[in-house]
Structures are given as C-alpha cells and as structure tokens.
Amino acid sequence: MVQTKKDMPSYVVTTGTQRYECHIERGILSRVAEYLPAKAGKIFIVTTEDVWKLYGSRITFPHELVFFPGGEPNKRLAVLEVMAGEMLAKGADRSSVIVAFGGGIVGDTGGFLAAIFMRGIPVIQVPTTLLAQVDASIGGKTGVNLAGGKNLIGAFHQPLAVLIDPSVLTTLPPREYRSGLFEVVKYGIISSPALFRLLADNSAGVLAMDSDAVDFIVSDSVRIKAEVVSADEKEGGLRRILNYGHTLGHALEAETSYSRMLHGEAVGFGMNAASYLAERLGLLAAADAKEMRRVTALYGPWPAVSDLRPEALAAHTLKDKKTIQGTTHFVLAEGVGTVRVVSGIAAADVVAAAAAAL
Ligand SMILES: NC(=O)c1ccc[n+]([C@@H]2O[C@H](COP(=O)([O-])OP(=O)(O)OC[C@H]3O[C@@H](n4cnc5c(N)ncnc54)[C@H](O)[C@@H]3O)[C@@H](O)[C@H]2O)c1
Ligand SMILES: [Zn+2]
C-alpha cells in the first residue's frame, strides 16, 4: 500500500473500476504536469482567485483557467453551468482534463464539472486546505448544493490522481486550519492511536505547523481515508465510520443555518457529543471519553453554541441524509482506534448527549 518517493508517502485507492494514487509531497505543486495523461487535450484549471494569486506561479504547463467564485452559496448547478460554458468557449472537448486546485468547495465543484462535462472527463485533485487534503479530495464524491440541502446533487467521479502539497497550508487562515484539524482528530479516534497520541502530545507543534508534525498528520489521515474508500467506495459499510462526529455535527451546522460554524468545528462538537453518547450507552470508558474531549479541545475553541436547544439538534439527526428509513445511525467509539455503527438509539439519549456537549 505504501510506496516512498522523495521520502514522502503515496497511498493507493482502488475501487471496483479504478486505481489511483494520493501523493503527499512538499513541492509537488510544481510537478503537476508529470501526472497529466500523455494524450490529454487542453488542461483546465478550476480554482479560486485567492488560491491562484498565492500559488498560480507554481503551475508552469500550458493551461486554461476557469475561476470558481468561491464560497458555499456558489456551490450550485447554475454556477457550474456558467463554468461549463466557459470551458466550451475556451475549446474544451472530450480529451480535456480538469485540475481542481483549491479547497474542498473547488474539489467538489471541479470534480462534479468533470463528472458531467461531455458525460465525463478526467480530473486531478490538487487540494490546498487541510480539510480538502485529508478528506474531500479522496474518494470521488463530487457535487453541489440544492436550496434544500448540502451536496444533494452529485456523482461519484474518482480522480486520476490526488496531489497533496502540505507546504501550501501555511497561508491558510488559522481558523480554517484548526477546523481541518478536527477531521484529523476524527481519523485518530476512528483508526489511529499513533495519530491520536501525536495530536495529544504535540499540539504546540501541530498548531505551529511544524513540518514533521504536519507531514505526519496529513499522511496518516490520507492513509486511513484511502484504505476506507478502497474497502467501501459507496458507503455501504466501512465508509460510514468516516461519519464519526458528523451526525450531530451536521445537525449543528443545519441548526445554525451553515453560517456560524466551519464544518470541522461542527465535527468537533459532534465528536464531543458522540463521546458522551458512547459513555452513556456503556460503550466507552469515562476516562477515555474525557481524554477524547480534552484532545479535541486543544484545537478549539469553536464559536459558542450554548444558546442552542439539544432537542432541536436531536430532531435534525432524523433528517440527516445518512438516515435510512427513519433510523439514525451513530458511529460510536469504544476506545481510541475502535469504532462501530450503532442504530436504534433512543431520542432521549441523543438529547442527553447533545445537552452534555452544548
Ligand atoms: N467530497 C467529499 O468527500 C467532501 C468531504 C468533506 C468536505 N467536502 C466539502 O468541502 C467543502 C469545504 O471545503 P474547505 O473547508 O476546504 O473550504 P473552502 O474550499 O471554502 O476553502 C476555505 C477557504 O480557504 C481558501 N484557501 C484554499 N486553500 C488555501 C491556501 N492554501 N491558502 C490560503 N487560502 C486558501 C479558499 O479559497 C476558501 O476561501 C464543503 O463544501 C464540503 O461539502 C467534501
Ligand atoms: Zn467532515
């Protein structure tokens, strides 16, 4: 599974039909051209103006630019249609390739554009936020929002490759970086005691973006995501563990109209609530639950949530996209590195866990 190139790891994702590599390598941004298919036609870089201003000079191969206006409200079909029209005007055809270069929003939108442009052209994911590097760019989920909810229109479209340059994280707004770190804490809890230990013992190094610490947290997270997606591309089973902290996290995002919390911050809250829930159900020892909350708090704080009602949050969990036939599934931890999916949890327990976390 692991190969080393210039001392940095690569992880392979294999799905029923595809195989691709996720390379984590400082400086890979200047070597994107090496990963373009030999017979590619025009290369379309989908990016935002802020990312292009910072890093566009590192892209030296011939390309066309398609700017995405940025921001969750623009992650919509109407914007995608404008971008597709722009591609066509600039000479795109079936041999074209998209390079999605930016945060998770660019990855989802650029990936979905590739999935549907002329019924599908290849995409290379070049993620530039921590959240996109450890999560959104890997696994082939692409899509846009509807007025009625996030990511409700989309397609699975696996990339040709995922090229991750951790050095670009230094320009991230600190809050965006910390928000991504909550997803990293998630990987530690669901699957990696070593990652959890590093997050617990060296928060100063992680927060200061010490390069060894950053390289390890990105690599170990990518390893886990690549392994889980390879085992279960379409979320029939194992992939559900990636939703740890997300059931009440999504509830919190919805209850605050997607305007108060960054996604990772909501996941931080959701993980705290999940730890209380697991403790309450007798799955997780109180000391382990407390340690999980202590480590999560090292990467906070997130905006205050004490004004919210636990009943309102619990009600949202029944409307979650992951809810199947009225049953909410919770991913709960039994210890660091061990989780399982539990269904049929009583609403009163969900309310109590949410209340404890608020
Ligand atoms: N497809 C998936 O599996 C998956 C998984 C998780 C999240 N997502 C999606 O990801 C999106 C969130 O992504 P995000 O958190 O990366 O937010 P984002 O894409 O909005 O990026 C955050 C901000 O940082 C800027 N930015 C990006 N890279 C930068 C850099 N290196 N330096 C400075 N600024 C930079 C962006 O332009 C943007 O303003 C959501 O829409 C979510 O639905 C998808
Ligand atoms: Zn998430």
Any idea of the CATH class of the largest domain? Mainly Alpha
Kindly name the structural category: alpha/beta
Strand order across the biggest sheet?
A: 1-2-3-10-7-6-4-5
Q: Which segments are poorly predicted (pLDDT under 50) over 5 or more consecutive residues?
A: 1-5
Architecture (CATH level 2) name of the largest domain: Up-down Bundle
CATH superfamily of the largest domain: Dehydroquinate synthase-like - alpha domain
**What is the count of distinct domains?**
2
Number of helices: 13
Overall mean pLDDT stands at 94
Strand content: 15-25%
What composes the largest sheet? 8 strands, mixed
The portion of residues assigned to helices is 40-55%
From the alpha carbons, calculate the radius of gyration and give it in angstroms: 20 Å
Instruction: Work out the number of β strands.
Output: 12
The CATH topology of the largest domain is what? Dehydroquinate synthase-like, alpha domain
Order of helix and strand elements from N to C terminus: EEEEHEHEHEHEEEHHHHHHHHEEH
